[in-house]
Design a protein that fits this description.
CATH architecture of the largest domain in chain A: Alpha-Beta Barrel
Number of helices of chain A: 20
Helix content of chain A: 40-55%
Number of domains of chain A: 2
Oligomer: homotrimer
Distance between the termini of chain A: 51 Å
Strand order of the largest sheet of chain A: 6-7-10-11
Radius of gyration of chain A: 23 Å
Number of strands of chain A: 11
Largest interface: A-C, 46 and 50 residues
CATH topology of the largest domain in chain A: TIM Barrel
CATH superfamily of the largest domain in chain A: Metal-dependent hydrolases
């Protein structure tokens, strides 16, 4: 920190930020961090729009880049009494006055973010990408807005230039099974583009007969796969076909997020019967749940066949506040974690596929109690199970520390799956990965200082956490952990 | 620590107690603590008897002051084999021999309290209020008893003098809806008293049709409100009336403690029907639960109307050991935390009132797993939701640290509700608040040392945690966070 | 660490390993650790075969000593893709080539254990018992195998010599109620043996009517007790008789592990009825569960009569992966923790027996969330309840720290039950106890550095945790905490 030429606080990121305070630990951590701070970003799960990289247009304005679409930012402002309508949510493109007003809301409420990772990310992005180090505040609102807006006109701040500058080696998107993946194809076929953006097969809405519009959705699935989905067998074939299509477009993984992780399979006849009922809009809630659980097990079966890694992000109550959903839509900051159980829930799946050669199941949770009690013990036995990174509410300095301390005892480092940024905020990718590297360096420094690891071993682990583990768990290949889907 | 003139250990409180051990962190923490160590006590939730301040009589004896009514102390002695009968519980006033014997039990068993906050509080009280620094032990029992007993005869140790000495700015009591609040009125009308003691509306027993004596209780409620409670409408009107009465006597909040936080409202007809059944003693257990959940939602509705903040302390299995309850009554040390869920339970309430302007819902828990998973995410979206302080079993150095690390990521500091002492042990109030300030200073020092906050920001946060946050969350006004109920 | 004469890494255990990194804390911790590092081992719960000490034969080979029977080791290798068949599991005695091949699997996969307590234990065992300090790796596999195999031929490495060298004061085994305890008797009657090995009454399989073969099992119980178990009364009498037999052979405790801790008693007639149904193979699943819960309460009743301490290790889903169980049997690394609740579950038992003089109930859990929420508050009221040590997945540096911080606030140190190694890996006993002592010394150092305990008090606590607490809780007598069963 320091002051600018008008005596205002500057927030220059400290080179030792997030490293442990104790001097001996900090020295070790700094050395470990140095080993990985320049390594490329491996991003196996996120929500960046690939079309942004195809079009490579300038970002429109600071508010649209940093605030309006990012529910991490808007939820905290909302919690402090700023309406989502004041933040441009669900209003389409902002004009200059509108964008400036939204930016001002953030600046005025900047103290609300103290102590949160959101502030940490935003400060890192502003300073390290945009060279803006003024402390945000009502009195710096216009100045900082102008500084960012000015940069956005510079071609060096377009998406592809930033992708290169961020050192991204591979970026996985999250995609609807019916998506034609034309953006992915366009990138692949573009001789001027040398990045790697891979799709991820995310079939949630097609596996939940209770979701509104499900009969139409599976019809569209049939159309996309050119298969008649009026029968259960057709539906299964269509899903298998779309998975193949995704693999042909570079996918290495599927992704799943349901409220629980039930995986009890149904008999073929029962599956057929419920499928038909659901198509007719007549399945009960219990039947719809049973069918969805069956289908999650089916996804594992398909993964054993086609080699896609299977990642699960369960246990979120979506759209907790219905009036906000009705007015502003989903992903607006009120998805709230739920209590979760996976040991019994996953047993049917793991009894069938848990030791299948090459099957990978990456288990994420936002219920921290699962780390030491359920997920680490499962990953410490099943060759297929990887511990997903601390995610969403947990991808923060304190939670990442708790995560490592909770899972390492039972699962070591080699059954964890690296870091995922899980973000739609493109510019936050470097800061999020850097945060994870810094915190892991601090944790590993503790192991060294307590003589549980030699420092050269810790340095090897450091590199594996950043580079090898996500490539292996998500079958991304490349780097030091090549392993491609069958 | 040190020795007295007879070579016995003295326990002089260390000026840096509870601050982090690492020297750099301790320096920062010491500076942060200095900013708040002299600030007045804001106590928004507790169980002090206001009549004690009206009467201002000397405390009877050391055992009655420190042991017999304090279930924190008696439960630990009981856990080590000392019967509650040996501690004077439920035996009325103690004579001098009896009080001395009770005090001796504490002294003999003093090592049982090592490592507990109970010892920390008692040592702080004895040293800082009473100037007694001998280590408690069988051989110091009489001497320390005499020293405290001697002080209690001094007018400087009467309740009002201690209130002033403790620096209490405002003290909230917990009161029955039928209470005439005459003690509060007496204090308000006493020209020689310049403290502030406000009542809190605690209607638990009136909202639980399954509680013994409920029909008589709602009849008394009607009498207190001068409303006929033989109908559901009359019952609602009586509650609304008593809330107004409390507001007129200075109340700013209601307080609620039920076994779960269910808030599903009933239709008007169903509410009427169950009310009538319950009055007739014919409601089923399920109906009684449904009615109570409905009434908790009604309390939120009333808060939206009358502006009282709503605090909830759910999830306690009361009187776990029935034989002890039968012999010694309630609040005797065997209320035990229960597992809790609030995300789904609160959804009906929050969908209706969660974004109502001015509505405040302060969520306490003794199930720590809720902090990062449920309460912080809720407080990080809903403007009404505040994270209640770590409470009861959790108002301790280690638990407060865990609390801050668990909630700050998702809710920052500005959606937490400050500290509550929740005590009936009047003399423990300063030690409890001081403990909280010391621990928070240590946590904030970590943020500074890890370059996540500038030290001047941390100092601002420190003051807010002590002074602003409890005033805002509980609508106490005054200080830097004035906001009064409508 | 360092290098050997061929330039390879040596892993010489550091004298300060596991002590806190911060210099001031480390100094205190080192002094506290010095107070207990030479104290005898008190091992109140484990799975060592007493016949091993009767026979006192050399251990066959390094793989059989360190790998094949130890599910901690085999599960991690399995998690990294090494089949249990490659590790000699369930294959009977290994020949030399087989043992060497198994050892090589461990060495090749040594990095998989980084950060785990398994590595910590194995390194300590190899270095401190066998003088082997080479880092395990593919290239050191044969050399280290030979070094260990060579030592195993030396009489100084036979079980009795190691028992003496490990400084074991008392070792409790875990035994079937029908066991004739002839090994225990042989040791007791052997004039050349001066160790103490006591049996523990573990009746799980006799209390679960749903377990396969239960009718035959209770028939065998009757035969062992010489009581007709065709009636419920006979069954109860047989259990009481076998408990007396165990007491006569030195037992001081019973041990119980069921999936939940339900303790609701049945009426006598209902118990009789279900017992008869179960003998006839006709009890429903619900009846079997109800009967088992009733019997756990009965075990408490018997403990009040005969004075055996009662230890419970609930909440484990046994044999999660059925195909592995079918092929390799139980205890093969896929027992996984389950979520647990004990406050309500134990209420029936504690209301009846919780304040019975001399009754001891030691509560273990692998669900960490219970420590602060349930177990510590129960132990902080009930004189009978002791907090069991962090166990199985939790007997590790980080988990032990979390345990102390979670339970001390509400239960102090004096209601915790010391450490249990719970191991069938005989040579890991010293390393496991030493780990626990080091970590506790570090935790206590924090209390001293934060001025919450004087250092002389912390030193007393240190000794109590190692020596007094397990003797008291498990009624082992001896040391400083003599208390024998009635």
């Amino acid at each position: 920190m320091g002051e600018d030429d008008r005596g205002r606080t500057r927030r220059t990121p400290h080179p030792d930020r997030l490293l442990p305070a104790e001097p001996h630990l900090r020295d070790i951590a700094r050395r470990l961090y140095q080993r990985v701070c320049e390594l490329p970003v491996v991003s196996p799960h996120g929500h960046v729009d690939p079309g942004m990289l195809v079009r490579d247009e300038p970002f429109p304005d600071p508010a649209t880049l940093f605030i309006t679409p990012d529910h991490y930012v808007t939820r905290m402002l909302h919690a402090h009494g700023v309406g989502l309508d004041e933040l441009g949510v669900a209003q389409g493109p902002l004009d200059e006055a509108g964008a400036r007003a939204v930016w001002r809301r953030l600046c005025e409420n900047w103290p609300a973010f103290r102590g949160t990772p959101i502030r940490y990310w935003l400060e890192a992005e502003l300073a390290e990408i945009f060279g803006v180090e003024q402390q945000l505040a009502a009195e710096t609102a216009d100045e900082t807005y102008d500084a960012v807006a000015q940069r956005l006109k510079d071609p060096a701040f377009r998406p592809r230039a930033l992708y290169a500058r961020f050192g991204i080696d591979v970026l996985a998107t999250t995609d609807d099974p019916c998506d034609d993946l034309s953006d992915h194809a366009a990138l692949r076929d573009d001789p001027t583009w040398d990045g790697r953006v891979v799709p991820t097969f995310r079939p949630d809405a097609y596996l939940e007969p209770a979701a509104p519009g499900w009969p139409e959705r599976v019809k569209r699935l049939g159309a996309a796969a050119d298969v008649d989905t009026s029968s259960y067998e057709g539906y299964i074939a269509a899903l298998e076909s779309r998975r193949r299509y995704f693999i042909a477009h570079g996918a290495t993984a599927t992704d799943h997020s349901h409220i629980d992780l039930g995986t009890e399979p149904l008999g073929r006849d029962e599956a057929r019967r419920i499928y038909a009922s659901a198509l007719a809009g007549q399945a009960t809630a219990a039947e719809a749940t049973a069918f969805r659980r069956h289908m999650v097990a089916e996804m594992a079966r398909m993964s054993c066949d086609d080699g896609l890694a299977m990642a699960v992000h369960p246990g979120i109550v979506r759209n907790h506040h219905r009036p906000t959903f009705d007015r502003f839509g989903g992903d607006t900051g009120h998805d709230i974690p739920a209590q979760l159980e996976v040991v019994r829930a996953l047993r049917p799946l793991l009894e069938r596929y848990g030791t299948h050669p090459g099957f990978h199941l990456v288990l994420f949770t936002v219920d921290e109690t699962l780390y030491s009690r359920e997920i680490a013990p499962l990953a410490g036995f099943y060759p297929s199970v990887y511990v997903g990174a601390p995610w969403w509410f947990l991808d923060t300095p304190d939670a990442i520390r708790r995560f490592r301390h909770a899972v390492t005892d039972s699962a070591g480092f080699g059954k964890t799956a690296g870091f995922v940024d899980d973000t739609r905020a493109f510019c936050s990718i470097p800061a999020r990965h850097d945060l994870s590297r810094r915190v892991d360096a601090g944790v590993l420094a503790e192991y060294v200082a307590e003589h549980r690891l030699d420092e050269d071993e810790a340095a090897e682990v450091m590199v594996e956490l950043v580079d090898r583990q996500p490539r292996v768990a998500f079958k991304l290949g490349g780097g030091s952990g090549a392993e491609a889907p069958a």
